[in-house]
Amino acid sequence: MHVSGIIMAIIIGLIIGALGRLVVPGRQSIPIWLTIVIGIVAALIGTAIAGGLGVADTKGIDWIEIAIQVVLAAVGVAVTAGIYSRR
C-alpha cells in the first residue's frame, strides 16, 4: 500500500463510514466523529484485504473493494453502537 493509497482510503473512509451507518438498521447512538473514524479504519483494512485477495487494482471502479469496506464499516458501526449504548 502506497501513500496515495492510504490518503485515498482516508478520503473514501469518510464516505464509507456514512454508508456503513446507513446499512445498519435502527438508530445508532454514537457520535458522527466515531462513525468517521470507523469508516477510515474500515477503508484501510478493506483496502488491505482487497489487496490480499488481488482485487484492489482493477480497471475502472473497484466495486469489490468498496463492498468489503462498506461491510467492514457496517460491522464496526453495529459493534460500536452496541458497546457505546451500554455506557
Short description:
With 87 residues, the chain is mainly alpha-helical. It has helices spanning 3-23, 32-53, 63-85. Helix 1 packs across helix 2 (32-53), helix 1 (3-23) crosses helix 3 and helix 2 crosses helix 3.
List the SSEs and their pairings:
Layout lengths: L2 H21 L8 H22 L9 H23 L2
Helix pairs in contact: 1-2, 1-3, 2-3
Characterize the structure shown:
With 87 residues, the protein is mainly alpha-helical. The protein has one domain. 76% of the residues lie in helices and 0% in strands. It has 3 helices and no strands. It has helices spanning 3-23, 32-53, 63-85. Helix 1 (3-23) packs across helix 3 and helix 2 packs across helix 3. The termini are far apart. The mean pLDDT is 82.
Keywords:
87 residues
Give the SSE order as H and E letters: HHH
Q: Specify the helix fraction band.
A: over 70%
| N/C terminus separation | 37 Å
Derived structural class: mainly alpha
Low-pLDDT stretches are none
What is the rounded Rg?
13 Å
Count every helix, treating DSSP H or I runs of 4 or more residues as helices: 3
The oligomerization state is single chain
Strand percentage lies at under 5%
According to DSSP, the number of beta strands is 0
Mean pLDDT: 82
Largest sheet properties: none
| Number of domains as seen in the coordinates | 1
User: What gross morphology would you assign?
Assistant: elongated
